[in-house]
Specification:
Length: 198
């Protein structure tokens, strides 16, 4: 049986400030055959890093010029709240440009470590992006309201049809497939076990 990793597991494994860092590291140390979806590697992870880089670029611009106007439309609702808090901290003198640059460097280092992990510890990247079942994605998106996670979950479900797997995540909100398990099975898919590492 293979272990399918959600993207949040990869980010947490290399972010020492994450509340779940230690438990994820212990989990990864004791396992050695991991799967992710091609979608995660080719689309989701690069987009997440691009957004994180833009996030810190906006904060750095504001730290240099307090009248800088941020285009919030490129950020998620959660990122907007965090960025507004960060701007307030900058304006209050609680966060410095040097501190922001250091955080940006940390993001680049995490990116490098995730890419190395994918190259060295991921045994298989599953389901070509164009083969992700759109009906399954639509069904899951209706439940969790997160299309990116729906594509990852769909990839895990589709791979599970051929190779039994267990999906691991920290995301208890977007990975709830139990409420729609019957609907998924009506589409002729078996659901993998989902384990939450928290």
């Amino acid at each position: 049986m293979k272990d399918f990793l959600d993207t949040c597991i990869l980010f947490t494994a290399f972010d020492t400030r994450d509340a779940h860092y230690e438990e994820v590291c212990i989990f990864l140390e004791n396992q050695d055959d991991f799967l992710i979806s091609i979608y995660q590697e080719k689309e989701e992870i690069p987009k997440l890093f691009l957004r994180k880089q833009r996030f810190f670029m906006e904060a750095i611009k504001f730290s240099k010029n307090r009248s800088h106007i941020t285009d919030y439309s490129i950020f998620t609702d959660k990122e907007k709240i965090i960025l507004k808090k960060l701007r307030h901290q900058i304006a209050s003198g609680l966060e410095t440009e040097d501190g922001l640059i250091e955080k940006q460097r940390e993001i680049l280092l995490i990116r490098k470590k995730i890419n190395e992990f994918i190259q060295t510890r991921i045994s298989k990247k599953v389901i070509p992006i164009e083969k992700i079942d759109p009906t399954l994605v639509s069904l899951i998106t209706k439940e969790n309201k997160n299309k990116a996670d729906a594509k990852i979950i769909s990839s895990a479900i589709q791979e599970h049809q051929e190779n039994e797997l267990i999906a691991f995540t920290l995301d208890k909100n977007d990975w709830k497939i139990i409420p729609i398990k019957e609907k998924i099975e009506n589409l002729k898919f078996k659901c993998p076990e989902v384990r939450f590492l928290r």
